[in-house]
Design a protein that fits this description.
Elements (H helix, E strand, L loop, with lengths): L1 H26 L1 H10 L2 H10 L7 E6 L2 H17 L4 E6 L2 H6 L8 E4 L5 H11 L3 E5 L5 H9 L4 E6 L12 H9 L4 E4 L2 H7 L15 H14 L13 E8 L1 H17 L3 E7 L4 H13 L5 E2 L13 E3 L6 H6 L3 E4 L11 H4 L5 E3 L7 H8 L3 E3 L3 H13 L1 H17 L3 H12 L10
Parallel strand pairs: 1-2, 1-4, 2-3, 4-5, 5-6, 7-8, 7-11, 8-10, 9-10, 11-12, 12-13
């Protein structure tokens, strides 16, 4: 049966995927960057391989992009803390994830996952020769999974999700999917609902182990590191409240900026930090224009000078990598993306006891749904609802602190996925503890 599905996939699907990727690279800069990054990669991998000791155990992680990488990080950290001699290789499909991870101390090699042809998949694994392949969340490519299985490379999936609307277990995939997923040794879903849906593709309950979401461990670990760093104080006047609007898009700003302008007028001690998701100059300039036209001064972070402290009440971040530290210094937060394709990471502000607001498009985030149910986060659908909810949180410290406490407690209540996964890995694969002896 697998021969039939493999033939059908490679004859009917792979050429379309290949053509779509190359046509997409003409129009999409990120796809073009990914195509360029894959060019000559096998030679670079061979060169790296020649410099490594073949006796060292190699663990290959695959992450689609940034979110999946963040789910893999705590497992990588746990493995390396257990055995520092492990070689960690991480592959990405998207250029966003590839570029995001720069110079990470626990990674020995960073690569792009090749396009899913049978030839390239086999070549990929023949060169790297991993002892274990760990896929983060969902990015399953049939030829790569078949190639790994053919080379007796055990494959597992961590923080696995399968939504009720997913096509992976519906239609023709009801028959095709099991021919792919049966090659996993373990799948670790984040919740019971996901586990039940995975049974359609992977009907092996003894190998389908609900462990939770490693992102909670990742966010907690990052939060602990941020807490020991020097606090980010952007304002000369540290009295009053600070509101961080993180990962915002123009679709958020349509409602958010007018709401913030009114709140600044009503609350003289309120200070605002705006953190756009993308730092295009045209976007930054547009935000500045709207704030200034309303009669308020705004200063970019890079213009603050050596002391990095502003006398203005509105700061526009025009640099990356500081959002977690900003949330630590905040009293309340808005998370963007929720007036367009979906809300961004609501866990980052939650771990710092921030009550969180976001727009109506947050069903992509299970954490956002849960935080709303706990009254630790709040959905707002327009400018008026933003003003009303922020007004309540600004003026009522008891409600603000209670919501923030619930948000942080929610993160703490969901820790432990990494330990559960590691326990199974250690018990199942002796090479996890294998040390190189010269």
């Amino acid at each position: 049966m697998q021969i039939f599905w493999s033939l059908a996939y490679n004859v009917l699907i792979v050429p379309v995927l290949y053509l779509g990727f190359y046509l997409g690279s003409v129009f999409d800069p990120k796809i073009k960057q990914g195509r360029k990054g894959r060019s000559g990669q096998f030679q670079r991998m061979k060169k790296w391989n020649a410099d490594q000791n073949s006796d060292k155990v190699r663990i290959l992680f695959h992450c689609t992009s940034v979110g999946e990488w963040l789910q893999a990080v705590p497992v990588i950290e746990k493995l390396k803390s257990h055995n520092s001699e492990l070689l960690i290789i991480v592959s990405f499909f998207s250029s966003s994830g590839f570029d995001y991870v720069k110079g990470h101390p626990l990674i020995d090699l960073k690569v792009y996952l090749p396009l899913d042809t049978a030839v390239q998949a086999r070549k990929f694994f023949h060169i790297l020769k991993p002892h274990l392949w760990i896929i983060s969340k969902f990015d399953v490519w049939p030829n790569h999974l078949w190639a790994a299985s053919g080379l007796n490379i055990p494959t597992i999936m961590i923080a696995a999700t399968l939504s009720s609307t997913s096509r992976r277990y519906k239609g023709i995939n009801r028959w095709f999917g099991p021919q792919v997923y049966k090659h996993f040794q373990y799948i670790f879903p984040i919740a019971d609902d996901d586990s039940q849906r995975f049974m359609h593709l992977f009907p092996y309950p003894d190998k389908l182990l609900v462990a939770g979401d490693t992102r909670f461990d990742s966010v907690f670990s990052k939060g602990e590191k941020v807490k020991i760093e020097r606090p980010i104080n952007l304002f000369k006047d540290n009295n009053g409240l600070t509101l961080i609007a993180g990962s915002i898009w123009p679709s958020d700003e349509k409602y958010l900026l007018p709401a913030l302008i009114e709140l600044l007028q009503e609350h003289p001690y309120l200070k605002v930090v705006l953190v756009p998701h993308e730092l295009k100059e045209s976007h930054l300039t547009d935000i500045e224009k709207k704030i200034k036209n309303a009669g308020w001064e705004i200063m970019r972070y890079t213009q603050l000078g050596a002391n990095k402290a502003s006398i203005q009440r509105v700061i526009l971040m025009d640099t990356i990598g500081m959002l977690a530290g900003l949330y630590r210094s905040a009293d309340l937060a808005y998370v963007g993306g929720s007036f367009s394709t979906g809300v961004h990471n609501v866990m980052e502000p939650a771990i710092f006891s921030n009550p969180v607001l976001f727009g109506p498009n947050h069903r992509n985030s299970l954490e956002a749904i849960h935080l709303v149910q706990l009254e630790a986060a709040f959905e707002v659908r327009n400018k008026e609802e933003m003003i009303s909810r922020f007004e309540l949180l600004i003026t009522n410290s008891d409600i603000r602190r209670l919501a923030g406490h619930k948000a942080e407690q929610y993160i703490h209540d969901h820790l432990g996925a990494t330990d559960q996964i590691f326990k199974v890995l250690k018990e199942s694969y002796d090479f996890i503890s294998q040390h190189y002896t010269n």
